[in-house]
Design a protein that fits this description.
Strand content: 5-15%
Structural class: mainly alpha
Oligomer: single chain
Shape: elongated
Largest sheet: 3 strands, antiparallel
Distance between the termini: 62 Å
Number of domains: 2
Length: 179
């Protein structure tokens, strides 16, 4: 007999069959009875309807960039993005949170409420050799600060008047007759 999706079964040390609902991002829930029985299916449906809990939020200090990142990852603005855009944003935010400031402390542990315009400019200037990376950082910080304002963590957005770094390019080359 096939088990319902996200169901794990095993025999415990006393020889009893145990069934659990296990889904990534959800809490593990014990399921009573035998698979497909009414009591089993009632508990299974309740577990499927449950809300995913944020795994990293309890470990992040409240008000920090890491906590803001976890909150942003759970927001509707992030969840409605295309998967490829989510991946790019998540990598950029994780890289920002893991990067260290001049004191050697991770930025993820710093307070998001104390970010100022000059900090954003310095972060972008550190990536000036790669202007696309600096502009992506600006875009990601703008999205996070918009979320911080909406969630009440900040009153203003320090990224609003920060200009993007102009990318120097030779433009598109014209095709030759041979091409």
């Amino acid at each position: 007999m096939k088990m319902p999706r996200f169901t794990q079964a095993f025999i415990d040390r006393h020889g009893n069959a145990r069934f659990y609902f296990r889904r990534l991002g959800f809490k593990r829930v014990p399921l009573p009875g035998l698979p497909w029985s009414p009591e089993f299916m009632a508990a299974y449906e309740a577990a499927m309807a449950g809300q995913a809990h944020i795994i990293a939020a309890p470990r992040a200090k409240q008000g920090s960039f890491a906590a803001l990142a976890a909150s942003y990852f759970a927001s509707s603005a992030f969840m409605t993005m295309k998967p490829s855009t989510k991946g790019v944003y998540r990598n950029a935010i994780d890289r920002l949170c893991r990067s260290k400031n001049k004191d050697g402390n991770e930025i993820g542990g710093k307070s998001a409420a104390t970010l100022q315009r000059e900090h954003v400019v310095k972060l972008m200037a550190a990536r000036a050799q790669k202007p696309e990376s600096a502009n992506l950082l600006r875009k990601v910080l703008r999205a996070m600060m918009t979320h911080a304002v909406e969630s009440g963590l900040r009153a203003d957005d320090p990224t609003l008047d920060v200009k993007a770094i102009r990318v120097k390019s030779d433009g598109f080359h014209s095709w030759t007759d041979a091409e």
